[in-house]
Write a structure and sequence with these properties.
Helix content is 45%, strand content 18%. With 634 residues, it is an alpha+beta fold. Helix 3 runs antiparallel to helix 4. The longest helix has 35 residues. It is elongated and about 110 Å long.
Amino acid sequence: MSAFDAKTPDQLNIRNDGAKGKGPIDFGTPSALLVFRLIAACVLCGIVPILKVPSPQSTVILLCSGLISGIDFVYDGIKQILLEEKYFNRNAIITLIFLVSFIIGVGYEGTCLMILTQLGRLLASYVQRKTREHVEGLTGLRYETARVQTNGDISEKFIDEVRAGDIISVHAGEDFPLDCIVMEGTSTMDVSRITGSTKMVNISIGDAVLAGTRNVAHDVLCEVTSDGSSTASAILDQLNRTQLVNDNPAFKYFTPALMLISFVYGIVIAVMGQVDAYEAIHRALAMFTLSSALPAFAWVGEICYAVRAGAAVHGVLFRDDKALKEMEHCSSVLFSAEGTLTAGQQKVVAVQSDRFDSHTFLKIAAHAMAYSKEASADAVIKAYGGPIDIELIQDFVEIPHCGVKVIVDGIQVILGTQALLAAVGRPLPDDADNSVLFMIVGSQVAGTITLSDPIRKSAGTIISRLEEVGVQHTEFVTSYSTGIADKISQKSRIVDYKTNCGEDAKLRYLETLKFASDETVMYVCDQKWHGKVHSAADLDTVVDCLPTMEGAGTAELLLPGKRAVLICDAMKWSKKARRNCTTALGVSMSVKGVLMVLAALGLTTIWFSAFVECAAMLAVGVFSGKAFFAKSLK
């Protein structure tokens, strides 16, 4: 059984959006009414042995005590059995044991079971909530107040009271609690908790700052850019997403199998005459109490949460637990080279022209590409640096990833790659540098613009690190031509690649790759190349992207920084999560196994089995949430 798949029907009381479900317990703050019910139930249950209440009065009191503490269990269990035909829901099992215990004369045990089960859920919800608060506190991303300046006075306000346009003061050594823009002062900020990068960033007036970053050097005044929401809150929301999965075949039959074993065992020992019928039923019920899979698997989600929170501190955001599971099995990676293996920003490094000086040449080129959507257009316009007169531009036609044909000030200009020139009947030598844009003004070649997209230093180590974590096949696709792709291949040592691919061509190639492989395929791209619709890959990984950005919600993995090499760490952490889950499940199942044997031998009672299992699971929960966060990412 997959540890990551260990989610039970009971856990479906919590929806993916974190809203409260309709179950008997919500995982928020326990209500005062529930606590009062448990106290009242315990008092009634204690009256029977203390006052030695005779039967049938004792039976009525115990029945009332059990119903007071667990009426929601009984209601939900009966509904699950009669209306929804879900016979193996934990609530249905507890209800069945509770009712049968009165039939065989051990109603006191049934009532204690009901009280302990409700108390166990109450404590579990409390521990789970405190564990998450602890983990979120370690991430350092939860903020309650901000220091707001109003008419020259500084006052503390709750985050949800701060509005866009408010001015906040952030002292040196403090975190920026909201996304904002620096309005006064200069400083340095630490962005490591958002991007995973340890490099300090200088900020001054007009610079954007993300919530969760730390002001290191000097006090600054900033203008808030959004109401209440921020990058930090978006990251916490991302962490709290949980993909609930309960369709694993092994998990599906876990509870029915244990119930069948308990039932058959009770019949066998009764038929063989080892015990009377009532004792056989009593032992079977004690085993029934342990048949639910929920206690054994309840903390798997908390372990995954702790690992995902730890990964977030290092600049890796998993969308949910399912993404963590998929990452572990990833064996094939396809990079969209721009922005992952390269810086993702082309620069003009050389201009050559026999007809124009470099400034005039760039001015013509910038006007020709003014309406272009290509990355090269941004590079050319930035290199020109002057104003664009749109009235000079006419008859603009763009050939994607090749170039443009346009009339500039009444003169035809063709600017693009070697492929574009060949398409218009002006082929160049085969050995021409494909990283160069050629410009024809009128009917003559006017010159060239040489572009460069710096290859990241980490590209040289990424293939070896991927091999270390079990990735067997790596390729890249790029919109660049063969000349630049060759340089990327030499630097990264990724042998297989495909050139001259726009966004659609990249996605089509990805579909082909996925169709031809039964392996888990990851597609790694930067935010500029990530479409709104999920790709054919099992895992979409987007570099230089935050949860607040458009299209981020369709990706399984976000790297807020610019280092694609962090996917190697993400794979390592996912494998660590699986080992941690397996450890916790091993402990849980061992406890359950020992209690099953004791119940079969008649050495334990119904309520004591539930009590010991609940205590063991709470211990596992506390350890898994706090200790795994601290240790899992080392």
